[in-house]
# Entry
Amino acid sequence: MDDRVVQYDTKMQKSLKNLQDEFAGIRAGRANPHVLDKLRVDYYGTPTPIQQVANVNVPEPRMLQIQPWEASMVKEIEKAILTSDLGINPTNDGRMIRLAFPELTEERRKDLAKDIKKKGEAAKVAVRNIRRDANDSFKKMGKKDDISEDEIKDLEQEIQKLTDKYIADVDRAVEDKTKEILTV
# Structure
């Protein structure tokens, strides 16, 4: 791979990784500690991920258990969960918080599938924007650095192959996550 193309490959990888991280936060009716990844709690004035102030484990398929290292954090964690878009009411016994994940309804599954497709489309747009930026920079290089038209065409073809690869990866990720969500 040409050195001038590597930076764009890295950017496309980051777009795909971002999509996969977003998908990890979508719950499929099973307890998954990653649904808490985006939540932050106020820990002595600093927004901190829940996993850094508590143990998070899955004692059963539809239950998350959060055990803070400090008892004072129970209320903070509970507040963060209630104000989030998780749609789950936490229960606490003063020492630990339990999140019971209800079975997803058919309608909710279909809404999540639509949301997954939207996120996939946004990732594809990001990849295509990276391709456009790459092609623009190659054209500028051609004028500035006196690179031949054939060489620019080769670079553009290489970027197109990368784009096709990442678009296919995004499609596969969307398909897998949709299948996971729609499976009862």
User: Anything to note?
Assistant: The mean pLDDT is 87. The chain has four helices and six strands.
